[in-house]
Specification:
Largest sheet: 6 strands, mixed
Radius of gyration: 20 Å
Shape: globular
Order of helices and strands: EEEHEEHEHHHEHEHEEH
Bound molecules: adenosine-5'-triphosphate, magnesium ion
Strand content: 15-25%
CATH architecture of the domain at 54-61 and 96-270: 3-Layer(aba) Sandwich
Distance between the termini: 36 Å
Length: about 270
C-alpha cells in the first residue's frame, strides 16, 4: 500500500490558504478540550487540504480526533491554534454570524444518527432548514422535492421516518444536506449504523453525486470498504495526520515516477 507522509502535502496546486484552489485548506490546527479536571489535545497541529471535486475519506482509530477535525474545520467548534481557509476565506476572520451563514449556505452535514424529526414527513424534514433560513414555503417545497429526487427518494416524500428503512432515512438526511446546493458535504460515519449492503448503496450515492455534480465530500469512516471508494484517505492517529492512501495518491505517485523516468530517458538520449 502506498502511504504518503503528512509532511508532504503532495498536491502541487495548493498555494497558501488565501490563494489556493483548495476548498478546504487547514494548517497546523490545534484543538484542546479542557474539562476542568483534565486537558485532552485532540488535534496536535493538523495540516489538511481538499481540492474542489474531491471525495476524501478520514480514517483512524476511535478517539484519534476525526470528529474533532470535522467540527473544527467546518467552524462548528473553535480551535486553539492554526489556520483554516474555506474557499479561500479565513475562518478566524469571520464573525460568529458570518460563520453560521456561511455554513448554512455552503456546507451540508450528514451524521451517523439521522436527526430526523419523527413527526415530520421526509419532505418536511428536508425543507426545515430552508424554512428556518427564511425561504418561502412554496420554494422550500419545490427545492426539497428536487433534493429527494437527487437521492432517488421522491416517491417517499410523504412518509415519516418510522415508515422508512435505515438506508432510506440516511438518504433523507443526504437530501437535507443537499437542499441548499452546498459546495461541500461533511459526513461523519454516514454508514456507521447501516448493514454492509445498505452502506455500500449510500456510498454509491455519495460517489454518484460527487461524479455527476462535482460535489466535494469529506467522509469520516471506520469502514475500509468505504475508504476504498474515496479518491484519497487521510489517516489519523492520536490527534495527528500520519499519512494518506488511496487511488488518487497512487495515481499522483505514478505520474511523478513516469515524469521522472521520461526526464531520465531524455537525459540519456541527449548524451
Ligand atoms: N467535548 C469534548 N470534551 C472533552 N473531550 C473531548 C470532547 N470531544 C472529544 N473529546 C476527546 O477528544 C479526542 C478525540 O475525540 P473525537 O471524537 O474527535 O474522536 P474520533 O476519532 O471521532 O473517535 P470515534 O471514531 O470514536 O468517533 C478523544 O480523546 C475524546 O475523548
Ligand atoms: Mg467520531
Amino acid at each position: 500500500m502506498f502511504l504518503r507522509g503528512s509532511k508532504d502535502k503532495g498536491i502541487p496546486s495548493f498555494g497558501d490558504g488565501a490563494n489556493t484552489n483548495a476548498i478546504i485548506y487547514a494548517s497546523q490546527v490545534v484543538k484542546t478540550y479542557d474539562t476542568g479536571t483534565s486537558k485532552v489535545q485532540a488535534l496536535k497541529g493538523v495540516d489538511f487540504a481538499v481540492q474542489r471535486g474531491e471525495l476524501v475519506g478520514v480514517m483512524g482509530p476511535s478517539g484519534c480526533g476525526k470528529t474533532t477535525l470535522l467540527n473544527c474545520l467546518s467552524g462548528l467548534d473553535g480551535v486553539d491554534g492554526g489556520q483554516i481557509w474555506l474557499e479561500g476565506k479565513d475562518l478566524a476572520k469571520m464573525s460568529d454570524k458570518e460563520r453560521t451563514t456561511y455554513r448554512a449556505r455552503r456546507m451540508g452535514f450528514i451524521f451517523q444518527v439521522y436527526n430526523l424529526l419523527p413527526v415530520l414527513s421526509a419532505v418536511e424534514n428536508v425543507e426545515l432548514p430552508l424554512l428556518v433560513s427564511g425561504v418561502g414555503s412554496k420554494e422550500a417545497r419545490t427545492r426539497s422535492i428536487a433534493a429527494l429526487e437527487r437521492v432517488g427518494l421522491d416517491q417517499w416524500a410523504k412518509h415519516r421516518p418510522a415508515e422508512l428503512s435505515g438506508g432510506q432515512r440516511q438518504r433523507v438526511t443526504i437530501a437535507r444536506a443537499l437542499v441548499n446546493n452546498p459546495a461541500l458535504i461533511w459526513a461523519d460515519e454516514p454508514t456507521g449504523a447501516l448493514d454492509s449492503k445498505t452502506a455500500n448503496e449510500i456510498m454509491g450515492l455519495l460517489r454518484e453525486l460527487n461524479e455527476r455534480e462535482g460535489l466535494t465530500c469529506v467522509i469520516v469512516t471506520h469502514d475500509p470498504g468505504i475508504g476504498d471508494r474515496c479518491d484519497r484517505v487521510v489517516r489519523m492517529r492520536d490527534g495527528s495526520v500520519v499519512g494518506e492512501t488511496g487511488p488518487r495518491v497512487i495515481a499522483e505517485a505514478e505520474a511523478i515516477a513516469a515524469a521522472a523516468a521520461a526526464a531520465q530517458r531524455e537525459l540519456v538520449a541527449s548524451r
